Amino acid sequence: MIPWLERGDAFPHLDTALRQPNGLLAASADLSVARLRMAYAHGIFPWFNPGDPILWWSPDPRMVLRPAELHVRRSLRKRLKRGDYEVRVDTVFRRVLDACSAPRDGQAGTWITDEMIDAYCALHTNGYAHSVETWIDGELVGGLYGVALGRAFFGESMFTRVPDASKIAFVHLVRQLERWGFALIDCQMRTDHLASFGAKEIPRRAFASQLAELIHYEPVGVGKAEDAAGEAAVATAGFPAAAWAARGFDDDLMREAVDVRVAATRQ
């Protein structure tokens, strides 16, 4: 059995999560900004099917990528160097979620429901959720979205309409997060795709311990939110939309970093 959370209830301790299914922790009917921020700050994320209660998860082990450990395959390195694309941030957030929610090959649908899209758009409006987008010839062809708290980024989903489009967005994101001092990207659960970029599994307790520190760091140039009592709480949003746009993506730095780091991972 898992507990049902009423609005305002704290999440149970991560050690109480089920082993099967791995990481199932609680259920609720609340996808508010406050609930989602509380969840991510504790290493918990929502995942549920249409018509089901909102289920909250924290699997063990946890798949993470440290930005400095990104691996870029030789073929992707060549694609990045072509430079026939543009990477934008937070320009069409809802469109990215809509694209991520589209059925994949062999699937009738995805877990990204209209309710989830509305909830993450609210997170975006409040500066916590971000999209990274790949554009070619003025068309959105791939991208991803996730949540930023302090110096941790939580990846949620990605999509692609042309080969490598989501990978381009991902590599640019990782390199920029490294530049901004982010120490951890949460990939949630293991996939071979993420492992190919250098993501690794770590124990949930280690993940939670690192996260508890990282969410309170201030990213470069960004202050902290205040809680209801007026005291500093979780560092805001990583980078609100205005800050992302102002800083942009440093293409020269990006290409230099890829050239240097790919040498050891040629395949």
Question: How would you describe this protein?
Answer:
- With 267 residues, the chain is an alpha+beta fold.
- 33% of the residues lie in helices and 24% in strands.
- It is built from 9 helices and 13 strands.
- The protein has helices at 33-41, 74-82, 93-101, 114-125, 165-179, 192-195, 204-214, 241-247, 251-261, and strands spanning 4-5, 24-28, 45-46, 54-57, 62-65, 86-89, 129-136, 139-149, 152-160, 184-188, 200-202, 224-226, 232-235.
- It has a 7-stranded mixed beta sheet with strand order 6-7-8-9-10-5-11, with helices on both faces.
- The chain is globular.
Question: What does the secondary structure layout of this molecule look like, with pairings?
Answer:
Layout: E1 4-5, E2 24-28, H1 33-41, E3 45-46, E4 54-57, E5 62-65, H2 74-82, E6 86-89, H3 93-101, H4 114-125, E7 129-136, E8 139-149, E9 152-160, H5 165-179, E10 184-188, H6 192-195, E11 200-202, H7 204-214, E12 224-226, E13 232-235, H8 241-247, H9 251-261
Parallel strand pairs: 1-2, 9-10
Antiparallel strand pairs: 2-4, 3-4, 5-10, 5-11, 6-7, 7-8, 8-9, 12-13
